[in-house]
Amino acid sequence: MTVTKTILATFLGNPHFRQPYAANLNQAYDQLEQLVERINVELNFVDVMDKLEAEAVG
Deepest in the core among 5, 11, 30, 56, taking most CB within 10 A? Predict the structure, then answer.
């Protein structure tokens, strides 16, 4: 997760970011952004499941 966020930050620092001639860069950034969101959702889901399990046991 940390590595992915670092990669996203390097995209934002690139002067060619979101320029028409950098279509591949833009696509890669969008894909990484979606991956970060998916990871966040999955981690939140795991956290909720762990809490529910702890409540059921406790």
Answer: 11
1-58 confidence digits (pLDDT tens): 787 778 777 777 777 776 776 688 778 889 999 999 999 999 999 999 999 999 998 7
Question: How far apart are alpha carbons 4 and 33 in whole angstroms?
Answer: 9
Residue 18 falls in which region: left (phi positive, over 0), alpha (psi -120 to 50) or beta: left
